[in-house]
Write a structure and sequence with these properties.
Blueprint (H helix, E strand, L loop, with lengths): L8 H8 L7 E6 L7 E7 L2 E7 L9 H13 L17 E3 L2 E7 L11 H17 L16 H5 L3 H7 L3 H15 L8
Antiparallel strand pairs: 1-2, 2-3, 3-5, 4-5
């Protein structure tokens, strides 16, 4: 289950007092996810997702991701929209963690996506990139190609257990990527 930080009833009530969302009717952890604590939240005004950002997340990056979602939602792209508290800010603190409430989107996470679903995902990703073409905020990509060697470090034994020779293939691929050094990806 992807709930690492528990939220007490009192803490949730105090947190919701900072919003115009009414009182909590339902509040439960969401099993999907790997990095943050996510909760389904239903209030007297609607359905939402509450996310508490855990230790691995750099809190300095959160305004970028909140701004990105606000930009997408403002242009009509279907994405969870950050909900502003009474003070006009989306990012808050709950149980000692940075936290945000976003709008709820109906949908399912397919266990075995079909080719048509994968195609739809690709088309949606392309639309998202076009929608973000005038998004002005930037941040370094901490999980981009320059970080891959650091993420790979110490994993060769595990790769060899999966398939003999896999470690050398990964080392070679990382070297090829480092040598290529693409400067940017642009739309034609």
């Amino acid at each position: 289950m992807a709930v690492y930080t528990q939220v007490s009833d009192d803490a949730l009530a105090a947190f919701l007092d900072e919003y115009n969302l009414g009182n909590a009717l339902s509040f439960k952890g969401i099993a999907e996810g790997v990095e943050n604590s996510n909760y389904y939240l239903e209030t007297t005004t609607g359905r939402f997702i509450l996310t508490l950002f855990e230790k691995r997340v750099n809190a300095d990056d959160l305004p970028y991701f909140i701004g990105l979602k606000q930009h997408l939602a403002g242009k009509g792209f279907p994405c969870p929209e950050p909900i502003l508290a009474k003070d006009g800010k989306a990012l808050r603190t709950l149980e000692g963690r940075p936290a945000v409430i976003v709008s709820f989107l109906d949908g399912l996470s397919p266990k075995k996506p079909t080719p048509a679903q994968c195609r739809g995902l690709g088309e949606g990703l392309a639309r998202m990139h076009v929608t973000l073409s005038d998004f002005e905020m930037t941040r370094p990509n901490s999980l981009g190609p320059s970080a891959w060697p650091r993420l790979w470090a110490g994993q060769s034994d595990e790769a060899e257990k999966l398939q003999p020779g896999l470690s050398a293939l990964i080392d070679e691929a990382l070297a090829d990527i480092a040598e290529a050094k693409p400067k940017s990806l642009t739309l034609p």
